[in-house]
Each structure stands twice: as C-alpha cells, then as structure tokens.
C-alpha cells in the first residue's frame, strides 16, 4: 500500500471513525461484486459515513485528492452501476449507515428519509402512519432508497403511481466538491427555475451522492383483488389491459406479464411454487386492483375477466380468495430473476416501448433470435401496464466467456435495433451502469450525448463520480 493511500485512509478514518471504514479484504467482499455476479472490482477502502455531514467531508477529501468515488446503496443493481473497477484506485462510499426515517408528515402525505434506508423499512414507516409508499420490487428487503433514486427504479406499481421520479418531491445531495444541496422540500408545486431534482434522479451517482429524500405518500389501500389469467397471444393481453383500465380506472395498480417459458423457469427453480392454471398458457398476466376501501373490487375484476373469457380474449382465470393465494402468485412473478441466475447465463434487456407496439416487437424479436445459430431460450416478462419488458435471452450455463460475449453482442444489436426503430428505450428501470453504457452511445442522439456530457462536466469537472458508468 502506497504512502498516499495510507494517508487517504488515515484522513477518512479521522472523518468517519473506525466504524465507518472497511479495509479487511473478507469484509469488503460483499461490496466488490454485483448481485448478478457479472462484475468484480477491487478497492483499498470502503467508507461508510454516518450522516450527510460526514458524507460531505468524505467527498470533499476525494475531490481534493482526485480519488474516484463509487456510491453504493444495497448493491442490488442489475447493470453494474455500483461496482468498482479492478484498478484499486476507487473508493466505495456506502450509504448503508445513513438509515434514519427523519420525518413522516401524514397531513402533507410525505416522508423524509436518509438515502440508506432500506425500501422495505420505508414502506413499514409509511404503514405505521396509516399511509402507503407504493414502490415495490423484488429486492425491497435489501435495496435502499438512494439506490432506487439513482436508477429511477420502477417496480410493479408504476402503472398507478409512477417510478421514483414521480415518487420523490425533494432531494438532499452532496455535490462532487463536497458542498451540500438541500432540496428537501415537500412541495408539489415549485416553479422557481430548473428542476435540479430530476437531474440527480437516474444519474447513477455520476453527478453527486444522494443523501436524503422527501417521498410522496398515499392513502393506505385496505382492499385488494388479484387474479391470474392465461392467453394465447400478447395482443390479447394488451387488449385485456385496455379493457381493465377502462373499467377499473386508477384502481388498477399492477398488470404483469410472464411468458410460458418464464413461468416454467420459476416453477423449476424456485421452491414452493405451483402453476396457477390447469393448462399452460403462452402468455400470462397477474392483475391486481387496490383501493382504500372494498367497493366491490372482486366483483369488478370478475366482471372484466368474465367478459374476456366469454369473448375468447383469455383462456382461463384464477381469482385469489385470500392474501396467501395472492402472495403465492406474486412469488411466481418476483422469482424470475432468482430462477434465471440458477438456470443459465442471460443476456438481459430492460426495454420500454409504446404499449401498442409490444406485440409486434415480441413477434419480430422472437423470429430474429430464432434465426441466429446460437442456442437460446427467450425469457420474456415485465410490466405490461407501462410498456416495460424484460426481454431476456438465456443461453446454456456451460457457455464459455467468448460464447457469452458473442451472444451478447448479437442479441443486443437485434433487440436494441428493433427497440430504436419502434421509438422505445434500451433502459427502462434498471439503469445504464456498465451493462448498457456502450449501447447508450450507439442509440442516443449525438446532441443528447453532448448535452449530458456538458452537464457531467459542469457538476464533476474532476470526473471522480462513478467513472466508467452511464457515460
């Protein structure tokens, strides 16, 4: 270890104390590898500030010493955005010690939290005030609010409540030179210039470190109705979505799709799961309504789906009679990522398209991938209600590094070219990170890239914030 590195660690220790430093190699290991196991990095120190003031001092020191910073929350990202490189020159700044619920304001329907608060804990704090924070995703027991903001996370309730950009009213951010921007305003109207908040949401730690947020809360839903349906085509499910929206309005909070291959994968690799329908369906939808009071939700859903069955729009339907049955269906949907990790090597695509284009895209992409001389199985699932598909291509677990690299290049070009032609996005909710960084350059308009680079230069002229990610 060089004298400069030892001096940096000593100065960091003076800021955060022994409890705020991780220098032991074994203790560092969970911070150095992403959840999917695709990226592995190396650092000499992980620093864990206890609050915003310590974070500012850490960032100021890194600014002065030109030390690159990788901000990290729960390390549950899907695109390698929170993983350091292998140079050993970077510092991981973990927000996990910043875990306070600062304030819950039921009258204003807001909650102010530290960035390191685990999402499930934020949800629980809202419930304790008889309020509802709707962001929900598979990693909610370990991901953090700051990470959700940095990637503009979506999840299963975007259809009704929006993604994190819609769920955050204000932010607190430590800028790359160590100054603190306090934008923690719980206002729904603030027309006083550029919206700085939206610059930081989705910026993946490249413009600063989010340390706090004011989140929107909603009335706690006390009634839900859940059903699973099977259909022959994706077009049928898109039509069913339109009918359900027209009949149920804002009571429709989730409309999730799983292809037959996706469901089969979960049934094979996730314990305590079973098929909801007697006969397999080519495409499945998990539909949920919610409201503050019952108001006949179950009857409403049964009416919509009963008519769809009569019209031949769906083949079969299962209605949940208990919370346990509903939880079992959601376990199928949320178990796909776990099943994919166990089953094979996956070329992941997190794409967004106009809902009206989803069926045409799926048909064209299925055919194009089948035409390639690469063993592959398409695992197509996602948030049909907001046009976000996880159109993943699984190749054999035995594939070599070179085979994975080749398949990734081929399938990315096929899928992303089609997405671009249909005016879609190659990154919907998982972020760009390392996974899609080079793809972004290929598909973003040159002017868009130029403007983003100018913003990066203005905020971070020393280029120390999460280098090698996003841009």
Automatic annotation (TrEMBL):
Pfam families membership: FAD-oxidase_C, FAD_binding_4
Keyword Flavoprotein in annotation: yes
Ranges where the FAD-binding PCMH-type domain occurs: 39-220
InterPro entries for the chain: FAD-bd_oxidored_4_C (IPR004113), FAD-bd_PCMH (IPR016166), FAD-bd_PCMH-like_sf (IPR036318), FAD-bd_PCMH_sub1 (IPR016167), FAD-bd_PCMH_sub2 (IPR016169), FAD-linked_Oxase-like_C (IPR016164), FAD-oxidored/transferase_4 (IPR051264), Oxid_FAD_bind_N (IPR006094)
Record's keyword terms, sorted: FAD, Flavoprotein
Homology family: Belongs to the FAD-binding oxidoreductase/transferase type 4 family.
Name of the molecule in the record: FAD-binding oxidoreductase
Annotated source species: Herbaspirillum chlorophenolicum
């Amino acid at each position: 270890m060089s004298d400069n590195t030892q001096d940096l660690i000593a100065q960091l220790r003076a800021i955060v104390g022994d409890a705020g430093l991780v220098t032991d190699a074994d203790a560092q290991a969970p911070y150095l590898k992403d959840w999917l196991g695709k990226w592995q990095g190396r650092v000499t120190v992980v620093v864990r500030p206890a609050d915003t003031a310590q974070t500012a001092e850490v960032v100021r020191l890194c600014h002065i010493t030109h030390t690159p910073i990788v901000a990290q929350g729960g390390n549950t990202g899907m695109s390698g955005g929170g993983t350091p490189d292998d140079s050993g020159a970077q510092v991981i700044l973990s927000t996990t010690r910043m875990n306070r619920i600062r304030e819950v304001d039921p009258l204003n329907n807001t909650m102010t939290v530290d960035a390191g608060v685990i999402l499930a804990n934020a949800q629980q704090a809202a419930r304790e005030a008889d309020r509802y924070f709707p962001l929900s995703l598979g990693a909610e027991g370990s991901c953090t609010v700051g990470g959700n903001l940095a990637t503009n996370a979506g999840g299963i309730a975007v259809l009704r409540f929006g993604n994190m950009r819609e769920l955050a009213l204000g932010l607190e951010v430590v800028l790359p030179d160590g100054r603190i921007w306090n934008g923690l305003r719980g206002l729904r109207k603030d027309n006083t210039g550029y919206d700085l908040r939206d610059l930081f949401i989705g910026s993946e730690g490249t413009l600063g470190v989010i340390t706090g947020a004011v989140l929107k809360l909603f009335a706690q839903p006390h009634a839900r109705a859940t059903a699973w349906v099977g259909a022959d085509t994706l077009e049928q499910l898109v039509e069913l979505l339109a009918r359900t929206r027209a009949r149920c309005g804002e009571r429709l909070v989730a409309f999730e799709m799983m292809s037959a291959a996706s469901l089969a994968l979960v049934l094979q690799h996730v314990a305590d799961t079973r098929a909801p329908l007697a006969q397999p369906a080519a495409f499945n939808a998990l539909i949920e309504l919610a409201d503050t009071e019952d108001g006949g939700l179950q009857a409403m859903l049964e009416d919509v789906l009963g008519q769809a069955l009569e019209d031949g729009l769906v083949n079969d339907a299962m209605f949940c009679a208990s919370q346990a049955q509903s939880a079992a269906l959601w376990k199928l949907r949320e178990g796909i990522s776990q099943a994919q990790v166990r089953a094979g090597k996956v070329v992941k695509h997190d794409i967004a398209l106009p809902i009206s284009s989803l069926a045409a895209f799926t048909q064209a992409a299925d055919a194009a991938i089948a035409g390639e001389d690469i063993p592959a199985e398409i695992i197509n699932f996602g948030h049909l209600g907001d046009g976000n598909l996880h159109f993943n291509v699984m190749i054999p677990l035995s594939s070599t590094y070179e085979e994975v690299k080749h398949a990734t290049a081929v399938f990315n070009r096929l899928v992303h070219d089609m997405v671009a032609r249909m005016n879609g996005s190659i990154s919907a909710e998982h972020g760009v990170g390392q996974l899609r960084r080079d793809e972004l350059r290929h598909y973003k308009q040159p002017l868009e890239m130029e403007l983003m680079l100018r913003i990066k230069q203005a905020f971070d002229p020393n280029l120390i914030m999460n280098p090698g990610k996003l841009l």
